[in-house]
Amino acid sequence: MLAPQDLEYRPSSMTLFQYPKDRHRRTLNPRQFKRYRTYKRYLQVEFKRVCVYCRQPDSSAPNLNFGVDHYRPKSVPRFKSLVCEYQNLYYCCGGCNTRKNDYWPIDDAKGPFIVAPCEHEMAAHLRFNSKSGRIEARSIHGAHTEDLLQLNDEALVSYRLGALKIVDSLRRVMSEAESLMKKLEAKYRLGEITSKEIDEARDEHFEELNQLRTLLDAHEGSSPTKPIPKSRLGVAL
């Protein structure tokens, strides 16, 4: 349950589906695991629970399939040593992971590459157009990524536009609720309503904003993640 000060309406610090301008520097340094899937929780936290390729949050729908992507494919023999290398792993939705598959350019120097946040400045290659809901390529590598991962599949475009409308609506309702509460507080200070009435209004306001904030966080991808476990079956991670 959130505290009242956490529920006050505030503009989001993130912009849904936008690509980062700076190259990502990894903040976590988990120990070496024998199974790459063990890194999934670390990657979810590392990349703020969004697919690094299409920027869809994992919290926007309960049945979304997210997993671990090997940027340098594990099926390529010369990358066999990177199967459980954290620096080679990304948080990725099932759709992008399937479409990316085992792609790697024939020419390591020329590409074309699939752009990824630790390898490239993503915004230099891909741009999200919030009016059309489409991902626009800004480079050869961006165009290759958009095409291979089918980032402008019509179902995805429709989803993005719908998600933006939902987020805008939730923000507007929260802002209106805050304005109403401020008016009720002013009436209470003027003695126009009783302490019982203002207490009931505060309780209703808190409950409403709690529900709205939970919905907004889910659609924006800012829902808090569960703590990364420090041990498993008595063994330190």
Query: Can you count the helices?
Result: 6
Which descriptor suits the 3D outline?
Answer: elongated
Major sheet characteristics: 2 strands, antiparallel
Q: What is the string of helix and strand elements? A: HHEEHEEHHHEE
Oligomer designation = single chain
Give the spatial strand order of the biggest sheet: 1-2
Tell me the radius of gyration: 22 Å
Uncertain residue segments = 1-14
> In percent, how helical is the residue content?
25-40%
Number of separate structural domains: 2
Q: What does the average pLDDT come to?
A: 89
Kindly estimate the percentage of residues that lie in beta strands according to DSSP: 5-15%
Tell me the span between the first and last alpha carbons.
29 Å
Kindly describe this structure.
The protein has 237 residues and is mainly alpha-helical. It folds into 2 domains: 4-8 and 158-220; 36-156, no CATH class. Helix content is 38%, strand content 9%. The chain has 6 helices and 6 strands, in the order H-H-E-E-H-E-E-H-H-H-E-E. The strands form 3 sheets. Strands 1-2 form a two-stranded antiparallel ribbon. The protein has a two-stranded antiparallel ribbon with strand order 3-4. The protein has a two-stranded antiparallel sheet with strand order 5-6. Helix 5 (154-189) packs antiparallel against helix 6. It starts with a helix and ends with a strand. Mean pLDDT is 89; it is low at 1-14.
